[in-house]
Amino acid sequence: xxxxxxxxxxxxxxxxxxxxxxxxxxxxxxxxxxxxxxxxxxxxxxxxxxxxxxxxxxxxxxxxxxxxxxxxxxxxxxxxxxxxxxxxxxxxxxxxxxxxxxxxxxxxxxxxxxxxxxxxxxxxxxxxxxxxxxxxxxxxxxxxxxxxxxxxxxxxxxxxxxxxxxxxxxxxxxxxx
Length: 177
What we know:
The protein is an alpha/beta fold. It contains four helices and ten strands; from the N terminus they run ββαβαββαβαββββ.
């Protein structure tokens, strides 16, 4: 069985993952409960994927790299200096993901990058969606899903409430579901 690629992300009720300028300050203004399920989810993955913008934004939010115990790949259009915690990937994103899915291991987490997600959506390479809805309407910003994605049928795997947040967990419906 192939390893699943999972989108685990928070979004505003109107479908934005960040403000136009990339700011996510609004995420921290919501009354949550515990860690919102993050710890439980984090224990199910062994690989982290992100775009270069997300990688660089990580260091604005944290003093140290937050995923040192996971295999981490950062997609970049240009080569980067080696890093102790990540491997920079300049090759074709879908081809690289297909190879990763065939390897032994646990779930693969798409941390972020609207561009990376868009590429994976258009190639139907996302297997699970764990989306935490925040009780905020931003009105504009960076959308979770860009236009032009193929239709996907999903199956609700579960819902959880964390204070004012609601987490939806869907799996992609396959022909056997």
